[in-house]
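Suppose you are handed a protein chain with no further information: no name, no annotation, nothing but its sequence. What can you learn? This example shows the usual starting point.
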Amino acid sequence: MIPTGGELANTPIDFDQQPSTTYRLDLENGRVIGVVDGLEAVKQAVYKILQSPRYEHDIYSFDYGHELTRLLGRSPQYVQSEVTRLITEGLTQDDRIQTVEGVRISTAEDNMLVVFNVVSSFGSFEVTQEVS
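A reasonable first move is to predict its three-dimensional structure. Written in C-alpha cells, the prediction is:
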C-alpha cells in the first residue's frame, strides 16, 4: 500500500552540521597520528584540497580539489585573472569554509606566489600557495 496524506510532507527538514573531526596527518613522516578538529582540521583540509588536482583521483568526488593545472602554459595575465577564482571555487566546496579574501599575487619568472586568507566557521588563517 502507498500511504496518503499525513503531516510528513509539510514538515521542514533540519540539517545538522557534521563534525569536523578527522585524522591528523604528520606530513613530515608520512603518517597518521591521532585526530584533529576545529580550525586545525580546516587548515588540513585546505592543504589537502590545494594538493589534489580535481578529477585526477577516483577516491574523491568531482567537487573535490583544485583546477590550477588548467593554468599551465597560459599567459601570466590570464593566470593572474583566474587563480583567485579557481582557488575560491576549490576551497568553498568545503562547507566549513565561508570565503577566500585578501588575495595577493606576486610573480617571478615562471612561478607565482599566491597569499590569501581563508575565513571558516572556526576562524580565519593565512595560506601561501606557489603556482608554477
